[in-house]
Design a protein that fits this description.
102 residues, single chain
Length: 102
């Protein structure tokens, strides 16, 4: 489904994450990175991009559209790495023993 065919509720609002879930977004991030390793995410993202660009798809006939999907791939990979790093820092901070005040 192309972006211009999406229903209005998809416009800048979460559709899969409820308001209750949003309060605990970090748990969803932990769950995601617990299920998928960074190299697996990269491989899947690259495969999706390759399929989009190498199959007969009129949406990507235009060079500008192909450029946009490659740029999105690049930006999404950075976003995923940032979330991975933040998740790793959060997990490390939670497992460190707290210092006792004397």
């Amino acid at each position: 489904m192309l972006h211009h065919q999406l229903p209005p509720q998809f416009n800048n609002t979460p559709v899969r994450l409820s308001k209750k879930g949003a309060k605990h977004a970090d748990s969803f991030i932990r769950k995601f990175f617990g299920a998928y390793h960074l190299h697996e995410i990269r491989r899947s993202l690259a495969a999706l991009t390759e399929i989009a660009l190498t199959t007969n798809n009129t949406h990507f006939d235009d060079a500008k559209e192909r450029d946009c999907i490659l740029w999105f791939y690049y930006e999404l990979e950075i976003f995923i790495e940032a979330a991975w790093f933040q998740n790793k820092q959060s997990s490390t901070a939670k497992t460190k023993p707290k210092k006792k005040n004397k």
